[in-house]
Amino acid sequence: MEPKALAVDSDAVDSRAVEPGAPVGFRRKALAYVALTKPRIIELLLITTIPVMFLAARGVPDLWLVFATLIGGALSAGSAGAFNCYIDRDIDRIMKRTSKRPLVTGELSDREAIVFAWVLGAVSTVVLGVFVNWLAAALAVFGNVFYVVVYSLWLKRRTPQNIIWGGIAGCMPVLVGWAAVTGSLDWAPAILFVVVFLWTPPHYWPLSMRYRADYAAAEVPMLAVVRGRVQVGLQVVLYAWATVACSLLLIPVADMGVLYTVVALGSGVWFVVESHRLYSRAIRAQEGTPMRVFHASITYLTLLFVAVGVDPLLPL
């Protein structure tokens, strides 16, 4: 239930190289398992799940249902992250940004990682199926399989369009959250699914611009590697505009109020302006600030989904 990219991969855990055969303490091993799940990405995924549950309930959903959905969703996303770390362990050794991941440092073995990934995936399916509903569980499984098989194993190393289609996995939490409350799907979650789908490229491409040398060294054909900065900047602008336009469709479809309308417009304008600034600097051959757009995209999506969750609680 995870994208490819929704945030900076979680390398915040202090990971230092381990000598072959050297023992790893319990605390360090536990932190390595946590790092394997990419918790920063999980946080961003859950930011989209909770508000959608409030929207689906048109108020405060059952708190036990929210808890079970978050636990199951986090386990599913963690499973996808662990599988991805296992699959990408060869290129992670090449890229500076990922050189501290547990399979690179030796804190975890390949076998430990793959077993952990399977266990998390199985437990997440049981939790969602038993304590939420089987539609939510099936959607989470689809997202996990799509991220691991379609994105990690197939698209990532073959096409610069990898993050576009691979981003479908990162949209699944929206559907899971809605299905958890209603047991069905509708046009409102479909629109939010497309919002996250369109948001993913202008979120991730600036990050790939920042780490272009890393991806080039690992022979991963990110758009920033195979195209110039001007072309990447233009694509970021186009997708940013499309994201904001799609977010406004939710207003009539889900009968959203003043709060959502103001936030969608205000934060959307800011996101688009930041995207245009990146493109403008690329055209003028000036040093760009891709990470500024990257962080702006996270703030934009967070504000938008907070508004999605709070708006149904207000009278206007």
Explain the overall architecture:
This protein is an all-alpha fold. The chain has a single domain, classed as Farnesyl Diphosphate Synthase (Orthogonal Bundle), CATH 1.10.600. It is built from 15 helices and no strands. Helix 2 packs antiparallel against helix 3 and helix 10 runs antiparallel to helix 13. The longest helix has 26 residues. The N terminus is likely disordered.
Task: Please outline what is shown here.
This protein is mainly α and 316 residues long. The protein has helices at residues 26-36, 39-57, 63-87, 89-92, 102-105, 110-131, 134-155, 162-166, 168-182, 187-210, 212-217, 223-226, 229-253, 258-283, 290-310.
